[in-house]
Amino acid sequence: MSILTKIACTSDRWLSFGLWLSLLLCSLSVRAQVVISGKVTDAATGDGIPFANIILKGTPTGTTTNFEGLYSLKSTTFGDSIVVSYLGYRNRAKAVDKSQPTQTINIQLESGSYQLAEVVVHVGENPAFRILREVAKHKPENNKNKLTAYEYESYVKTEIDVDNLSDKLRSRKVIQKMAGVIESIQKVVGDDGKPILPVFISEAVSSVYHRRSPDKIKEFVRKSQVSGVGIGDNSIVQQLVGSTFQEFNFYDNYLRLLGKDFISPIADGGRGSYSYFLADSGLVNDVWCYRIEFEPKRKADLAFTGTVWIDKRTFGLAQIDAAIGRTANINFIEGVKIQQEFDFVDSTVWMPVRNRILIDIAQLSKKSAGMLAKFYTSNDHFVLNKPRDPSFYDEPLTMADDVHETTPDYWQTARHDPLTPDEKNVYRMIDSVKTIPIVKTYIQLADIAINGYFKAGKIDIGPYLYSYARNSYEGNRFRLGARTNNDFSKWLTLKGYLAYGTRDARFKYSGEASAILSRKHWTTVGYRRTYDVQRLGVNPDAIGDTYLVGTLFRAFTSFGRFRQPYLQTEDLFYLNTELAPGFTQTVGYRNRHFEPQFPFAYVLNGPTVADENNPLTGVYDTAELLYEFRYARGQRTLTNAHNRRVRLRRASAFPIISFKYVLGTKALGGDFTYHKFTLGLSNSVRVGALGRLRTDLTGGYTPSVTPYPLLEIHQGNQSFLFVPGAYNLMNYFEFVSDKYVSLRFYHDFEGLLFNGLPLIRRLNWRAHLSGNVLWGSVRPVNQTILPSENYLGQPIKQFGALSFNRPYAEVGYGIDNIFRCLSVTALHRLSYRDNPNVQRFGVKVNFQFKL
Question: What predicted TM-score, i.e. pTM, was given to this entire model?
Answer without folding.
Answer: 0.71
